[in-house]
Amino acid sequence: MVKDLFNRPIKDLRISVTDRCNFRCPYCMPAEIYGERYKFLPKDQVLSFEQIERIANVFAELGVSKIRLTGGEPLLRQDLDLLVKKLIQIPGIEDLALTTNGYLLYRYAEKLHEAGLKRITISIDTIDEDLFKEMSGVNAELSTVLEGLDLVERLGFNPIKINTVVQKGKNDKKLLDLAEYIKSKGHILRFIEYMDVGNLNGWDKSQVVPSAAIVKMLDKKFGITPLEKQYINEVANRWKYNDGSAEIGFISSVSDPFCGNCSRIRLSTDGKLYTCLFSDLGFDIKSTLDSDDDKLLKDKIMQIWGNRSDQYSQIRFDTKKKKPTKKIEMYAIGG
Ligand code: SAM
Ligand code: SF4
Ligand code: SF4
Q1: What are 242-271's pLDDT values in tens digits?
Q2: pLDDT tens string 216-230
Q3: Which atom of ligand 3 is nearest to the CA of 312?
Q4: Which residues line ligand 1 (CB under 6 A)?
Q5: Torsion angle (degrees, nearest 10) of CA 87, 89, 92, 97
Q6: Which ligand lies nearest the alpha carbon of 17?
Q7: Is the pTM of this model over 0.85?
Q8: What is the per-residue pLDDT across 34-92, written as a single tens digit (0 to 9) for each?
Q9: Could you state, in order of their start, the residue ranges of all structural domains in the chain?
Q10: In three state form, how does the secondary structure of the chain look?
Q11: Which residues contact 56 (CB under 8 A, 6 or more apart)?
């Protein structure tokens, strides 16, 4: 097992399978910038499924037990079910999950389930239809996502998690409706503090609603109780409704950073490794794949992780300032 400079192991690999998306959420891919003329990665720069499988195998040998497929919008990647089939067979991988905006689930959920995918996270910021249209950046229909949610329920995906990024002045006044809806379905709702990822969303701390405020609001309306951590590097603080109907999670990277236990690494669509969500530097490992010898790849990954000292959110918290330098965009490494 390889440890970084702060003795953190590597446990969790996030794979971005495409840099493209069918939404233009303003906090991630603002439509003014990612318009029709924007040049996404050409096909020959995108990692193939075989290359992803090879990289994932090496990570599993280094102690990774969890993989999450993400993007851009991962359901835009053709034949994603074939990649799922490959990844679930890797020895040591105990947990394979997908994060999606859910818009194309009606088309692909069944195939993915047949391929062996059982865990899914769907990003839904609001159940107000007009606000959903606005927050998707493309006038997307909420009903299409909710149909996708119904379908994954029927197929038996478990757990089903819902990610909600909370932005002050945007969806923060509509959170109780969403909570009630997801609670009635018994799924896990996870509130994510709006983060200063990337360089384009014009983030300002005044747009962040601290998780503590949402805890208070939910407790007043429904009654909630905190839960123990299930494992040391768990990112979300978990709570449950007092009536036992469902669980809620809070990912509070702004108000309560968790860098100390961060064991995640991210693989971009074009084969670069990012050791932090806020990195400005990706380490190219695609070129290492030219050799058939996996030892080269393993050594490179060990070197990258061994030199890691990232703690961006902790530093932001301690200094009360965000880093002014350029950072990788969220859609390129998938959150
Ligand atoms: N397109 C997929 C989706 O939206 O679920 C997967 C990729 S998306 C980048 C992964 C997660 O990152 C989503 O839940 C999204 O809401 C979250 N996200 C994007 N930008 C964010 C930001 N600035 N702060 C917090 N979360 C963000
Ligand atoms: Fe697309 Fe997901 Fe980013 Fe929204 S958050 S623009 S759905 S990648
Ligand atoms: Fe991990 Fe970087 Fe986030 Fe800290 S800021 S928790 S090191 S990804």
Answers
A1: 999 999 999 999 999 989 999 999 999 999
A2: 999 999 999 999 988
A3: 5
A4: 21, 27-28, 70-71, 73, 99-101, 123, 163, 165, 192, 194-195, 197, 201, 330-331, 334-335
A5: 40
A6: 1
A7: yes
A8: 888 899 999 999 999 999 999 999 999 999 999 999 999 999 999 999 999 999 999 99
A9: 12-333
A10: CCECCCCCECCEEEEECCCCCCCCCCCCCCCCCCCCCCCCCCHHHCCCHHHHHHHHHHHHHCCCCEEEEECCCHHHCCCHHHHHHHHHCCCCCCEEEEEECCCCHHHHHHHHHHHCCCEEEEECCCCCHHHHHHHHCCCCCHHHHHHHHHHHHHHCCCCEEEEEEEECCCCHHHHHHHHHHHHHHCCEEEEEECCCCCCCCCCCHHHECCHHHHHHHHHHHCCEEECCCCCCCCCCEEEEECCCCCEEEEECCCCCCCHHHCCEEEECCCCEEECCCCCCCCEECCHHHHCCCHHHHHHHHHHHHHCCCCCHHHHHHHHCCCCCCCCCCHHHHCC
A11: 13, 15, 64, 67, 87, 90, 93
| Residue 300 alpha carbon to ligand 2 centre in Å | 30
Q: Give the per-residue pLDDT at 42.
A: 95
Q: What is the mean pLDDT of the chain?
A: 94
Q: What spacing in Å lies between the alpha carbon of 329 and ligand 3's midpoint?
A: 14
Of 69, 107, 40, nearest in space to 335 by CA = 69
Amino acid found at 49: F
CATH of domain 12-333: 3.20.20.70
Predicted pLDDT of residue 316 = 85
What is d(CA 12, CA 287) in angstroms, rounded to the nearest whole number?
22
Asked whether 140 lines ligand 2 (CB < 6 A), one says: no
* Ligand 3 site residues, Cβ closer than 6 angstroms: 253, 258-259, 262, 264, 276-278, 310-313
- Per the DSSP assignment, residues forming a β-bridge with 192 are 165, 251
Predicted local distance difference test score (pLDDT) of residue 323:
63
